[in-house]
Structures are given as structure tokens and as C-alpha cells.
Write a structure and sequence with these properties.
It is a single chain. The chain is α+β, with helices and mostly antiparallel strands. Helix content is 18%, strand content 40%. The chain has eleven helices and 39 strands. The strands form ten sheets. Strands 5-4-9-2-1-11-14-13 form an eight-stranded mixed beta sheet, with no helix packed on it. The chain has an eight-stranded mixed beta sheet with strand order 28-29-27-26-33-37-36-35, with helices on one face. Strands 23-22-21-24-25 form a five-stranded antiparallel beta sheet. A hairpin with a 5-residue loop joins β26 and β27. α9 packs antiparallel against α10. The N and C termini lie far apart (88 Å).
Length: 633
């Protein structure tokens, strides 16, 4: 076993194989079906030399079948001051596997990560791509990196791009010394690691092969969507003189505290200013609110990915002097401001992003991409999103709500969950009064309010303070694509469950259609649920995850044109399932049609066998939403 492994390593270290033939004919025909690219072979190795340094190597051969697969032929290697690219090579092959040429120097770009919102970043990218498009063709890449950023070993999901990429063979090998035990979590049915013992190290190897392209299933949980894979993390590691231990969440928090140590110092003038600014507030919550207002007035968010692997915040005084910082720096700064008035708060690492998966709580490791602040109270907790200049005090949107966060307390890390936004928090109340004529032309007055997560996008549009831009964006987000809006009037309530209210007037173009002596009227002007989950007839394999929960309530009053008779009045309908409840009602009074619609959508994770019920539920709603009133004129 040892000799076999050494021969593999020697072959790998020699770099690209000049005599290898990577023709399309080598690929099993089943893998070509519906594929835009096929990975013929991919070998990733990570050799941990000690707690502070490892060698990463990659060898990959990808066949690009058409233009849609071109991205798979691009190699991106990230590096920073803790990571050095030692070698990067490439070879281009024809469809038959004939070697055409090596990668040219000008085909390797060296790119920074600076943008309007990312002011400082020591992260850079080597981007390699052959300037070639005679399909099909094959590219072979090999590179080696010395890595001193070992807070994460590897997150390996070889078939994450399952919708266009097939895998012939893909392997991951991690070699660790006996005194640095490997921690790992195998996910989504990956075969257990093959483990071999060497003289001073242990090698863990995972492999997948012959994975065909397959269409993803709607509403699949994000971790499951990535396909078979492995997350690997160190037990202990070192970065620029800082020693970390990731064996427990408590120890992960200890490392955060170590990185943040002595970075909360503020000048006497700032301390005095904060004390004066908060002096009139009698309650702890009032003082925290004033500090948050101060933060929003004095600072702005700028991404700064510098320091120890991008994990260490800039000092509080730096933010005070410059007036900007990233999520780490601004949260640390706010923590320092609160400390000056005797209020304790905790730096809180979290995995943020709308529809981002929550962390895997049974695998202590660096899984976070954002930092917020937690202020414990006697009867409640205040959560602060420190990167926003407009966020209401204490409000967490879907960006960070209802997921686990690691609090760096004085005793180390404590894993808690941020509050969830419920269906009664996330509401859309839409009222419309419409005057309709016999040609189908409609003039409407709209009174619409949104709360919780549903108000987020409308708060952003409101904050534009540009009526032309608002009129441009609103029809899409109001689900009124053909509407012409005017006379906009906004109100905003900045509470812990914030609310935005909009009143306006509108010309509507698609509410009714005249045909001969009849007028067909569609009262559901908002087209609320026109999406029906796909049902291919193939048995579902993944569970169902519905992220968002909300309540939609619509009331549309239509002043009808003069008519002889109502030929069709849609019936009242009610549907109920584990996924929510839906009711629609039509009331005809004098010359007015009053249409009411109420939909509550539940969230959660449901069993795969429930997918047919979900599809049927949405089909019923979509059909009800398209119901028409028919008038004989």
C-alpha cells in the first residue's frame, strides 16, 4: 500500500503527463448525455506539514463539449499573503486527444478583488483560460500552492454543478501528521474515506466516479443540493502566530476572542462623545438604540478583506478615524462603543445570505461569512446589523434571521439561534380600487403595505429618493409588470418588525379583455402565485425545504362598467395543506365586485414524499388566481 501511494505521489508531483490522451472517445457515452462539460479526472491533495503550513495540489482534465460549458474550462486559483502559488501549468488537447499546445503566459491573468464595495483586499486570483473554442476540446491543468491559512482544510463537493457537468473520476486526498488529527464530515451519501497509515502520517481519500448530469429538484435544501461531498477542518492550527483549536464551538469562539484582543480601544474624545450622546436615555435599550444611531450616522460599510485570513477585524479606533469598515470591523467598533457606557455585547459570527444554508451545528469549524452583534438583555436580546445605514434598530432581515450564530463570549463560543420572522411578521396587505370601462381599460388607486422581510426591497426602493427610478423598479416587485404608476406617496415605520406603506395611482392594461359582447375580467391583478413546482414523474429523492413564510392579503374592489348580466361569477374557494392555507372570495354588490384573497405560506423542511401534495397545492392556487368574471355587455 505504501509503495503504491508513493508511486501516485511521484507521478502527481511531476506535473502534467505529456503522453496522456484525453480524447472524447475516452468518455463513457452515458456521461455525455445532456452535459456541457465532463471532468475526465480531477485529483485534489492537501498535505498538512505542520499546524501552520500545508501544500495543496490540483490536477484536473476537463472536456468542454459546447459553448455553455466554457466556464468549466477556466481555472481560478485564489491566493493572498498567506498563500503562495508555486506552479500553474496547462495543456490544450483536440477532440481526439492530440496535444495542441501548452498554456501561454498571456492566458494567465492575475486579478485583484477590489470593487466599489471592496476597498481593500489582499485576496488575488490566478485565472487561466485557453483562448480556444473549437468544440469539443479538452484542457488539462495542474498547480501547487503553499498554504499558511489553515482555518479551513477543504470543502469538497465535486458535483455541485450537476445541471451541466458530468464527473468521470474525482478524488480528494488529505494527508495529516499523527499529532494533527483530521476532523471531517461526510455528506449526501459520499462513500466513506479510505484510510491508510504511513510512517508518520495518515492519508484519507474520497472518490466519486461516473456521475451523470441530472436536473436539480426544486426546493432542495442547499446542503443536499451540493451533492456528495466532504467538509474537512483542522483540530488545531496556527496563523501568523495565533494558535487556534476548532474541536469545539467553545474553542472556535476562543479563537475569535484571541483575534479581537485589544482591538476595542477608543480615544478619550470618542468615549466622552458617546457618553454625552447617550446620557439622556434612562434605559439600557434606549442607550443601545442611541449607539446604533451613532454608528449609522458616522460610518458606512466597505469590505476590507485583510489581516489573518480575512478573519481579524480592524481596530475600533481605525473605524472611528476612517468612518468605514467591513462587517467584522463595524461590529467590533459597535461593541467598543457600548463598552464605553458599560454595556456588554458579543461579536457574533454567522452564515448570512437570503436562502443560504444554515451552518452544520454538529461540525465545529469555520463556516461563517458575516458578523453581527448580540446585546444580551434581562428579558430579551437585541441583535444589531452593523453594516447598514438604514436598517431599523434591532431588525434582522432574512439575511441573518432564523439561523445559528456563534457568540464570542468571555468564556468562548456559544452557539445560539437568531430569531425567526413568522408569517405574521412577513406580510403584504394590498388594496386596490379600480374603475373599469367596457374596453378593459382600468384606472386604479393602490394602498399597499409590507412588513418584515417583505418590506426589505421596498425600503431599498424608497431610500432611492428618486421618483423616476422608483416608478421604473416598482412594477416588477409589485407583480404589476404592465402598470403605469404615478403620484407615489411613501411612509416607513422603523420598528423591530419594520413596515413600508405605499399609496399611488396606476393605469392597468391587463385586467380585462373584451370579446364581442362579453368582457372577461381577471380580479387578481397582482398575479401572486403563477409558479408551479415542476413534477417530472420521477420519484423525488431529496427533502423539501421552504425558506420563506409569509401572509399575503389582497382586497380588490372593481367598479364595473354598465352590463346586462353576470354570466360567470367565480366561486369562493379554500385550500389547506401542511404548506399553507389559501382562500379566495368574490362578492358582487350593486355594480361592484369585491375580490379578497388570503394566502399563508408555511416554511420548514418536509419529506420527499410530500412533493406531489406541494405541486397539487400550487396548481390549485394558480388556477384560482386565473379565475375570471364574465360580463355580458
Amino acid at each position: 500500500m505504501m509503495m503504491k501511494y508513493l508511486l501516485i505521489v511521484v507521478a502527481f508531483c511531476m506535473g502534467l503527463s505529456a503522453n496522456a490522451q484525453w480524447g472524447v472517445s475516452n468518455i463513457p457515452s452515458a456521461l455525455l448525455e445532456n452535459a456541457h462539460a465532463v471532468v475526465q479526472i480531477s485529483e485534489t491533495t492537501l498535505s498538512i506539514k505542520n499546524a501552520g503550513m500545508g501544500i495543496r495540489k490540483k490536477h484536473i482534465v476537463v472536456t468542454i463539449l459546447d459553448e455553455q460549458g466554457m466556464d468549466e474550462g477556466t481555472l481560478v486559483v485564489a491566493y493572498d499573503k498567506l498563500t503562495k502559488v508555486n506552479r500553474l501549468e496547462g495543456i490544450l488537447y483536440s477532440a481526439s486527444g492530440e496535444k495542441l499546445r501548452k498554456l501561454k503566459k498571456e492566458e494567465i491573468q492575475d486579478l485583484g478583488n477590489i470593487s466599489e464595495t471592496n476597498l481593500f483586499d489582499d485576496l488575488r486570483y490566478k485565472l487561466a483560460q485557453f483562448k480556444y473554442a473549437d468544440f469539443p476540446f479538452t484542457v488539462e491543468y495542474s498547480y501547487e500552492v503553499t498554504d499558511k491559512n489553515l482555518a479551513i482544510y477543504e470543502h469538497w463537493f465535486p458535483h455541485a454543478n450537476a445541471a451541466e457537468l458530468a464527473i468521470q473520476k474525482n478524488t480528494l486526498a488529505i494527508e495529516v501528521p499523527y499529532n494533527l488529527p483530521l476532523r471531517y464530515k461526510e455528506l449526501n451519501g459520499i462513500a466513506a474515506a479510505q484510510i491508510s497509515k504511513q510512517a508518520e502520517t495518515t492519508i484519507y481519500t474520497w472518490s466519486v466516479s461516473n456521475l451523470k448530469v441530472h436536473e436539480g429538484e426544486d426546493f432542495t435544501p442547499n446542503w443536499a443540493k451540493k451533492g456528495p461531498g466532504v467538509m474537512a477542518s483542522p483540530s488545531v492550527f496556527e496563523m501568523e502566530g495565533y494558535r487556534g483549536d476548532y474541536t469545539t464551538w467553545q474553542n472556535v469562539g476562543v479563537f475569535d476572542n484571541l483575534l479581537n484582543q485589544n482591538r476595542d480601544q477608543l480615544s478619550p474624545s470618542i468615549v466622552a462623545e458617546i457618553q454625552v450622546f447617550t446620557a439622556a436615555e434612562a434605559t439600557k435599550e434606549g442607550k443601545v438604540r442611541k449607539v446604533y444611531e451613532y454608528l449609522q450616522q458616522k460610518t458606512r460599510y466597505i469590505s476590507i478583506q485583510l489581516g489573518i485570513g480575512g478573519l481579524q477585524p480592524f481596530a475600533a479606533q481605525y473605524v472611528a478615524d476612517k468612518g468605514y469598515g467591513d462587517c467584522k470591523a463595524l461590529s467590533n467598533y459597535t461593541k467598543a462603543l457600548l463598552k464605553t457606557i458599560g454595556i456588554e455585547s458579543y461579536y457574533a459570527s454567522i452564515r448570512a445570505g437570503h436562502h443560504e444554508p444554515d451552518i452544520l451545528v454538529d461540525f465545529p469549524s469555520q463556516q461563517f461569512n458575516h458578523v453581527i452583534l448580540c446585546v444580551p438583555m434581562s428579558s430579551d436580546t437585541i441583535w444589531l446589523e452593523c453594516t447598514s445605514q438604514t436598517n431599523p434598530f434591532g431588525y434582522l432581515s432574512n439575511f441573518t434571521s432564523n439561523r445559528h450564530t456563534l457568540l464570542a463570549t468571555p468564556k468562548g463560543g456559544v452557539l445560539v439561534k437568531t430569531p425567526a420572522l413568522t408569517a405574521s411578521n412577513n406580510t403584504a396587505n394590498r388594496k386596490a380600487t379600480i374603475k373599469l370601462d367596457a374596453t378593459g381599460t382600468a384606472r386604479a388607486t393602490l394602498d399597499i403595505s409590507f412588513s418584515g422581510a417583505l418590506q426589505d426591497i421596498f425600503a431599498e426602493i424608497m431610500e432611492l429618493n428618486n421618483t423616476e427610478k422608483q416608478i421604473e423598479y416598482l412594477p416588477k416587485y409589485l407583480a404589476l409588470p404592465s402598470a403605469s404608476l404615478e403620484k407615489l406617496n411613501w411612509q416607513r415605520e422603523k420598528s423591530k418588525v419594520p413596515k413600508v406603506q405605499l399609496t399611488c395611482e396606476a393605469n392597468l392594461k391587463r385586467i380585462a379583455t373584451a370579446s364581442g359582447s362579453r368582457l372577461f375580467v381577471t380580479p387578481d391583478i397582482f398575479l401572486s402565485e403563477d409558479f408551479i413546482p415542476k413534477n417530472t414523474g420521477v420519484a423525488r429523492t431529496n427533502p423539501i425545504e421552504l425558506f420563506d413564510t409569509f401572509t399575503h392579503h389582497d382586497e380588490v374592489t372593481i367598479m364595473l362598467p354598465t352590463h346586462q348580466a353576470v354570466e360567470v361569477l367565480p366561486p369562493t374557494q379554500t385550500f389547506q395543506s401542511k404548506f399553507g392555507t389559501f382562500t379566495v372570495k368574490y362578492t358582487l354588490k350593486d355594480n361592484k365586485l369585491i375580490y379578497t384573497r388570503h394566502f399563508v405560506r408555511n416554511n420548514g423542511i418536509f419529506e420527499a414524499k410530500d412533493y406531489q401534495e406541494l405541486t397539487d397545492f400550487y396548481k390549485k392556487i394558480a388556477k384560482a388566481d386565473k379565475s375570471q368574471l364574465v360580463l355580458k355587455l
